[in-house]
Design a protein that fits this description.
globular; Met_Synth_C/arc
């Protein structure tokens, strides 16, 4: 990997997720083999939770989703625990630091990088403690290459999205970091079958040229769809033999592009769908793509009964003309987005509600 990103690190001192040394091997490329299916469970979380106690978060996740836990994210702890900072902790040969305007690529691993890696280790330690003897799917999350490029700044203060070379380097660094991260999860929790979730809330803005420049008065040029798809495919392929979910709680999720890029599942806010999405969703389901339907609000609110929460999923299925019995095989129920802005009590209630809503869908798919 070249260090062409402005502020990138030199070739020496290679470090990956949580400070692990890398082998110096090139990033994993696609083998062209079809990924082996993993039995997704009926319900799981998106990623973030309120508070800052890693053990309590791991207890909540593993207690709520006994057949599909995930690695919790706790952004309330501050910079480095947020989704961008956390993902910079995974990068190989690239580092980032906090500036008043956000995260900026830097020359060496400073205090912000060390803090982000420390929190990631703490979260992994807690999850490992609460998943002793666990066997089954386990989800870990990271920001995808295009949302990361839109959010990270170069030395000149502009988004990495403004520099095609920087985007390439960033995607390559992320890919290698994810390879190391997934290997560590397998080592810590041998019975787990990791599911990788790539968070891409800015993907539609990247495709449409809606990402603002540093001045705020202009926007960056739209990125070619074929390049977006190819880059995503390269990152997806790092999880060779394992499924990748792409999550976006923004409107107009590009279902067809994500399916072609190799995503085994797409995670989205069900309330943001329109009938314009029907054709792409139907084609995705018919081609084996699983839907992670976000039906439970991400902030404190009065919840419907479980059956009412999944009424929108049943309505979608009828519009698509799909067989009702396929629903439990094709849909996982989640919150609409992360729960970082919720109260701890609501977060626990929302997770339990996801499980009950998924059970309602399985018991009565009509």
């Amino acid at each position: 990997m070249r260090s062409g990103v402005r502020g990138g690190a030199p070739e020496s001192g290679r470090e990956g997720a949580a400070g692990a040394k890398t082998s110096g091997r090139p990033c994993v490329r696609s083998t062209g083999e079809r990924k082996q299916p993993v039995p997704f469970a009926p319900a799981t979380g998106v990623g973030s939770l309120p508070g800052g106690d890693a053990r309590e978060a791991a207890r909540t996740v593993t207690g709520s989703f006994e057949t599909f836990p995930h690695l919790p994210e706790l952004p309330a702890r501050g910079p480095g625990a947020d989704m961008i900072g956390r993902t910079t902790a995974l990068l190989v040969e690239l580092y980032a630091r906090v500036e008043p305007s956000g995260w900026r690529i830097g020359d060496h691993p400073g205090r912000d990088t060390r803090r982000a890696r420390s929190w990631l280790r703490e979260d992994l330690d807690a999850l490992e403690e609460f998943t002793q003897d666990y066997q089954g799917p386990l989800k870990v999350q990271a920001v995808g290459p295009w949302t990361l490029a839109a959010a990270l700044e170069l030395r000149n203060g502009e988004s990495a999205l403004s520099d095609p070379g920087a985007c390439r380097d960033l995607a390559a660094s992320l890919t290698e970091g994810l390879r190391l991260h997934l290997a560590e999860v397998r080592r810590r929790i041998p019975g787990a079958r990791p599911v990788l979730q790539l968070d891409e809330p800015s993907l539609t803005a990247v495709l449409r040229g809606h990402v603002k420049t540093a001045s705020g008065y202009r926007t960056h040029r739209a990125v070619d769809r074929q390049l977006v798809e190819a880059t995503l495919r390269d990152v997806v392929d790092v999880h060779d033999g394992g499924p990748v979910v792409v999550h976006s709680c923004a409107p107009d999720v590009p279902f067809a592009l994500l399916r072609r890029a190799g995503a085994a599942a797409v995670s989205f806010d069900l309330s943001l769908l329109t009938e314009r999405d029907d054709e792409a969703i139907g084609e995705a389901v018919e081609n084996g793509t699983r839907l992670f339907a976000g039906v439970v609000p991400g902030t404190d609110t009065a919840l419907l009964d479980p059956a009412g929460s999944v009424m929108g999923v049943r309505t979608l299925w009828r519009r698509l003309g799909l067989r009702p019995g396929l629903l439990p095989e094709a849909v996982t129920i989640t919150p609409a987005c992360g729960l970082a802005g919720a109260s701890p009590q609501y977060a626990r209630t929302a997770y339990a509600h996801c499980v009950r809503a998924a059970r309602s869908l399985a018991d009565n798919p009509e």
